Amino acid sequence: MRAIVRTGADDAGSRDAAQAGPGMEMREVPAPRPGPDEAVVEVVAVSLNFGGLAYGELARPGTVLGADGVGVLLHDPSGRLPARTRVAFTSPHGTWAERAVVPCDSLAEVPPTVSDTDAAALPGAGLTALQAVDTLQAALGGLAGRNVLVTGAAGGVGGYAVQLAKRAGAAVTAVARSVERQEHARRLGADRVAGSVEAAEDAGAAGADGAAETGTNSVGFDGVIDTVGGEALAAACRMVAPGALILNVGHASGRASLIDVEAMRRRAPGARIEAFVCTDVSGRALSRLLAMVAAGELEANVGRTRPWGEYRQAVRELLGRTSVGKTVLRVS
Ligand SMILES: NC(=O)c1ccc[n+]([C@@H]2O[C@H](COP(=O)([O-])OP(=O)(O)OC[C@H]3O[C@@H](n4cnc5c(N)ncnc54)[C@H](OP(=O)(O)O)[C@@H]3O)[C@@H](O)[C@H]2O)c1
Description:
The chain is an alpha/beta fold.
């Protein structure tokens, strides 16, 4: 079968993996062999995830790229789903291939009204945002009326986090670097938008839509979902309310953060920072997201769709930051 695999050399010959991405090529590989609790899926579409591409140098040469997708189930040894069911999934075994091996409990049936493209966009980024928003909800005793900051809000995880936090009743401040991306975040439901975390103070005070609003920073953020890291995370730590929970989900900036923890402790007693890791990649959690899309409560946030032969261009667009939301590759 054909698959897109990690090769030894960086694609653009750059030492900066965050810019160059992993070296990769489409080639014939042996069909994957499922373990006892694993299903085989004929892949229809897959999505691009920043982590698997920017940090691709971590993967061994020959590794099949990709972590999620949508396809047609060929065989489910658990017997839970019949063959030919349309399924969305995550998999640790690589998905940018004509066939993928998927842990049975990571499979979710796709509702008939949800397109392949939308279903392919959801799994990795959507599950991360879902667990992050659930974590904030549990820690803060609900999000209704709470101030939540989302960085990287026009990206994959950020775009879902904005929507899910809003759906949970939060007042959402979204940070994205260009006006176009800020408008995108607003369209997804953000109450306020800003070009940087520091500027979020002004966005709150002035009311980004011109309406009178309480300055976000006058009360501080109760919850933060940060996908950017670097200075964005450090600035967020200076702008939280007592008892806040800051989830550092990623570091798309590629930068480390210099955080004055003592200043945060004094300004916002009880505030905590968590190095968040998405652990719930179950089909059950994915079904929750698919049901929201089917009900029109969650937008799949697909910015671009390309045939998978155009994978190099798609990866360059993602790492070069010219794509918005999720990019989906059509495999068949
Ligand atoms: N912890 C976990 O379990 C987990 C799970 C999934 C993903 N992640 C991580 O989460 C991060 C986001 O993933 P994603 O799939 O959402 O990526 P994505 O779609 O590429 O979005 C990343 C966003 O980060 C912003 N960004 C990039 N570089 C920036 C910089 N230098 N300064 C400010 N903003 C910058 C971009 O914002 P602009 O629109 O402003 O350019 C972009 O929208 C990655 O680091 C990924 O590895 C972690």
